[in-house]
Amino acid sequence: xxxxxxxxTNAKNDTDRATVGFVVANASVASDVETVVFLSTEGVRLxxxxxxxxxxxxxxxxxxxxxxxxxxxxxxxxxxxPCFKKRGLDESALIEGATIVGGAKAVEFLATxxxxxxx
Length: 119
What we know:
Strand content: 15-25%
Number of helices: 4
Shape: globular
Order of helices and strands: EHEHEHEHE
Structural class: alpha/beta
CATH superfamily: DsrEFH-like
């Protein structure tokens, strides 16, 4: 099975990139590709309940729906631990399907045949 890691480094600082990252993630998981979204730097904010609720780029579904669709379809969301901690975010407020991981997890995924794209 093909493997794709989609690295999303943006949130409200660039809602277009954050949205398109999840659009591509949904297309990937719908194509039976093992798909992981890796949220890092500002992107970790997307893992907080309620944060993405008001993000809606014209021409796309609201980001909250894109994230929910991705998880419902079997996609995996990894959240960069040091990035999350640096921003003082609340681990008890993680969205459904999100897991805090270290960078080694992403490296392992890529080293075992995964490819990556960044938004």
